[in-house]
Predict the structure.
Amino acid sequence: MPANAEKNSIIKKISGFIKKEAVLCAAAILAVISMFFVQPDKAYAGYIDYRVISLLFCLMLVVAGLQSVGLFRSLGSMLLRRAGGTRQLIFILVFLCFFCSMFITADKPAATAEARTPRSAALSADLSCVKSTVGKATTRKAISA
């Protein structure tokens, strides 16, 4: 009987883990299923973008730190006090995200800096020879002929 109780205990621990970490378990199952469609090889290590993973990890650290000092709770309380009703609270939250995302992401300067790289300059030079004439694309070969 002790073996049966131990088996039930292990099953309860596994089911508890699955319930607690549902997203992780679903991702692991889907990763295993995807291995049947795309066979794993040595190039898999090259697919991982470590810069993005490190940025997300750092972002999670900052958010956890801000949460531990109670910043989000105090900001939420302030928003609830200032908003007169549900409609105003929704309005504030939607437009707060809208305007903050414009200032925080700042994609425009990054895109212009990327446009100055030699590789992208060569690509834009190659694409500049393509002209559109009455719905037809004319390439460099057609121009030189």
In short: Residues 125-145 have pLDDT under 50 and may be disordered. The beta strands are 131-133, 136-138. The chain has nine helices and two strands.
